[in-house]
Amino acid sequence: MRQYTAQEDYVLNTVNNRDVHFLRFWFADVLGNLKSFAIVPNELERAFDIGMPIDGNCIAGFESTQECDVIAWPEASSFQILPWRPNENCVARMFCNIKTPDGESYVSDTRHILKEVLRKASKMGFIVNVKPEIEYYYFESKDNPTPLDSGSTFDLTSLDSATDLRRDTVLTLESVGIPVQKSQHEAGASQHQIDLRTQDALSMADSIVTYKMAVKEIALKHGVFASFMPKPLNDQPGSSMHLHIHLSNEEGENIFFNENDPAGYYLTDTAKQFMAGILKYANETCLVTNQYQNSYKRLISASCLPTKIGWSRDNKETMLRVPGHRPNTEDCARVEVRNPDAACNPYLALAAIINAGLAGIEEGLELEAPSEGKEQSNELAELPIELGKSIELFETSDLMRQTLGDAVFDYLIKVKKAEWHRAISEVDPYELKNYLAVL
């Protein structure tokens, strides 16, 4: 029998001491939907030794490759007891690495795709750090999408009827090791936001997946329904997932920070090149960061949304922003990527954005001047405003094929073309309301 690592020993001991009866193995399909199966404790050592076989034909994006039998290998460092399950006969989870029977990383494992991009960043001397702002809505039920309140940004009154919901969710996130920075009511009726503290990119992608599950589970315990749909209501703001990103070195120093930046943005040349790469490849990454037709209804629903391919400090129309909080400190030297929404696969979205930024560094790109005013942003190119155009731009991208690999790249094109065809061919309520009686 092989020698277990310290982390594996910790998991084995905790399972025995904490009365854990079920171990859930988590992984995401290509579209970012969380998948899971459970094993009993007697199978845990076997899982650490040789993995657990699963049928890839049942998983979106896995069935597009020739290999149908795959192996789920639990990552002991991701072990957590799930606090929304009973205290007796506990349930724990671990994220899995998906491999072939020969032990090779599986081509459709999106977590592995992000790992490869981060490995590239590491070879360049960078650690990638991410802090997200994730928005979502509470509704009475999934069949009755009626908001719970009529509150707005920062409300702390009876208008914000979900205060206890947010509180319970924050406590749940912290109990599974996810550091929370702040929570608040957002601009929409019954729209909320919980911001996480900065983590390395892989840990953050895992945290985002866990965050979404926790929000939904706690909502169900309170008898309501939570949704991360980008634009669930016609007359309310859409929900985004802004991503704050910076690079650091092995000593933890922010490589983006330059206290002597003459422009006053406190950015190094490396930061500017990283931002230039994100902007250069923005059209090509958009299908990954905004993967549903509904995503584009969020982006075109108001004038202050991030549809312009440019950057600024205060112009909310640009897709990149350099926050002005805490000037002349390392905390201000980060780029906020504002177009993604939480309906994306966080592993793929981060892989796409980060690799675009790294390409900017490799190519030595020069960052264009900021677009702080309305007149300046009017001159900027725009992100695609519909899924069909986003597919076209993605389909010709050498960078995205290289980042995601042939299997995931081709699968996304196939499944998104099918979705786009359905979206433009189905009769929607707007057409019935406006045309049926008069035509």
From TrEMBL:
Establish whether keyword Coiled coil is in the entry: no
Q: Where is the GS catalytic domain?
A: 110-439
Q: Name one Pfam family in it.
A: Gln-synt_C
Gene3D superfamilies, alphabetically? Glutamine synthetase, N-terminal domain (3.10.20.70), Glutamine synthetase/guanido kinase, catalytic domain (3.30.590.10)
**E.C. number, please?**
6.3.1.-
- Name its GO BP terms in alphabetical order: glutamine biosynthetic process
Asked if the keyword Nucleotide-binding belongs to this entry, the reply reads yes
The protein in question is named Glutamine synthetase family protein
* Source species of the chain: Phoenicibacter congonensis
